[in-house]
Amino acid sequence: MVVTRFAPSPTGYLHIGGLRTALFSWLWARKNGGRFLLRIEDTDLSRNSDEALAAILEAFDWVGLDYDGDVVYQSQRFDLYKQYIDRLLEEGKAYKCYMSKEELDALRAEQMARGERPRYDGRYRDFTGTPPEGVAPVIRIKAPREGEIVFEDGVKGEIRIAASEVDDFIIARSDGTPTYNFVVAVDDALMGLTDVIRGDDHLYNTPKQLVVYEALGFTPPRFYHVPMIHNEQGRKLSKRDGAMDVMEYKRQGFLPEALLNFLVRLGWSHGDQEIFSREEMLEWFDPHDINKSASSYNLDKLLWLNAHYIKNTPNEKLAKLLEEFGVHIADHDRMEFLLDATKERSKTLVELADHIRMILERPAEYDPKAAKKAFKGEALSILRAFAEKLESSEGLHLPSDYHKVMETFVTEQEIGFGKLGQPLRVALLGKMTGPGMDEVMAILGVEETVARIGEAIERIGAEQS
RNA sequence: GGCCCCUUCAUCUAGCGGUUAGGAUUCCAGGUUUUCAUCCUGGCCACAGGAGUUCGAGUCUCCUAGGGGUCACCA
Predict the structure, then answer these.
(1) Nearest by Cα to A99 from A168, A185, A24
(2) What span, in angstroms and rounded, lies between the C-alpha atoms of A47 and A310?
(3) Coil, strand, or helix at residue A157?
(4) Shortest-distance nucleotide from A234 CA to C1'
(5) Is A373 a catalytic residue?
(6) Which of residues 175-214 of A touch strand B (CB under 7 A)?
(7) Is the ipTM of this complex over 0.90?
(8) Which of A53, A135, A410, A447 has its C-alpha lying 20 to 30 A from A227's C-alpha?
(9) Which residue out of A31, A93, A96, A239 is catalytically annotated?
(10) Are the C-beta atoms of A415 and A382 separated by less than 8 Å?
(11) In angstroms, rounded to a whole number, what is the distance separating the alpha carbons of residues A111 and A440?
């Protein structure tokens, strides 16, 4: 049985670094038919935010990561933690420390001044005297004083930390509330975690948590410390370059499958494969294959993946997704033509929506350069003749029908395709680029096509004569 | 600063002692297209540096440099 978890603190939204470790954990649990748990690390009551929690759950829902059982809130388990703290106190594995914050600060300053590493000096470790008046004690756990703490990390290999690096850290604040490293270890053990996959900024917490496991007699899980994601300059990810709310990717028109595919390939690979369906991720993912080094966020690759997934998403589904971007074409009788004509030239749903609007709405203006170039010489008479040709044709429906009309027209007129295509493009779309004319006409229909040609002749022709 | 981790094209990566160091994104060129995009073909581009070990090192060891993480009554 494999049990993994994602354990965010509700102090901010979910960003892609967190989403990636969540994905890795989810994949590993699901791949093995195990359980994936969600736990909220909200022991610091003053920093919690309901909005942050809601945002995290919303992001999970969007990308389709499901978790087993109820969400566990550490803030609701204080009684439980207290039992374990009391037990450690009774067994002499933890002790009350009456050092005030001021004293601690002073000690730290002193140590720093001597060029030493700030470290609690253990002065109350074996204290038996009368405690000072008026000081609410914190509770510290007894960490080993010599030797080293060794563990096998599934990603980094063997990690050895000298015991001198781990001091008797605080497991309960003076107000009685437990602290992070203590509750993480207790919960991971109690929740039956077998594999902890987390960011490698937690690497240094692991020896501390192992101290708790040891003191409580719990069996530690396997640890996998996943390297960070850096920005495109190789520095720490900030909001500017991708550390934004995962939901922001949705708003910017990314597909969850693209984002997940992008993230799974950051620090992990399977041979030369770039495109992974969810099934393939489940098939091949293994945390032991995660790279040791940090990787950089690369927007170009994400966009490429997104374009790929847009191209390969069924039109019906795209039409549904486009609702959120102000484009309502689910009931449009030419919905298929519309998306066939636009999905291959869109990197995001935002772009796709723009492209669709550009076809559906009459050109508000004609690009001056394009108009000048396309509407010269006999362009006007060609367009007029083509409009007539369209009106006299029967049974035009498919893009291929329109293509045939164009073909016979240019043959009859003995002109090149461009002589018709360029002015037609400007007349229908107002610019020189875009989908094929046959596709656009199939979407617009004869009536609208002829109307746009007429309008363009009127407006551009008038300007030029 | 102490401790820990990391280091293959600009970027994501393959490589697990013997390869013309492979793929993908970006970029460039050509083809396809009435245009743009897609797509196809091709090209540019890397083992951080230095010592070892070895017949042979991107692969193993050490050193240097660079980057990152961490040193809370935050998580």
Answers:
(1) A168
(2) 39
(3) strand
(4) B67
(5) no
(6) 175, 179-181, 200-205
(7) yes
(8) A53
(9) A239
(10) yes
(11) 75
CA neighbor of A171 nearest in space, from A187, A157, A160, A182: A182
Q: Are A320 and A255 within 8 A, CB to CB?
A: no
Q: How far apart are CA A141 and CA A172, in angstroms?
A: 9
How many other CB atoms are there within 10 angstroms of residue A273's CB atom?
10
Structure-token pair, residue A464? 């030029």
The token pair at A184 is 């993480």
Say yes or no: Cβ of A68 under 7 A from any atom of strand B.
no
A33-53 tens-digit pLDDT = 999 999 999 987 777 778 888
pLDDT single digits (tens) A86-142: 999 999 999 999 999 889 999 998 888 887 888 999 999 999 999 998 899 999 999
Pairs from A54-59 (Cβ < 8 Å, separation ≥ 24): A55/A13, A55/A14, A55/A245, A55/A247, A56/A8, A56/A10, A56/A13, A56/A14, A58/A247, A59/A13, A59/A14, A59/A19, A59/A245, A59/A246, A59/A247
Pair A111, A118: CB distance under 8 Å: yes
Residue nearest to nucleotide B35 (CA to C1'): A433
pTM, two decimal places = 0.95
Question: Quick check: A30 CB within 7 A of strand B?
Answer: no
Encoding tokens for residue A422?
């360029």
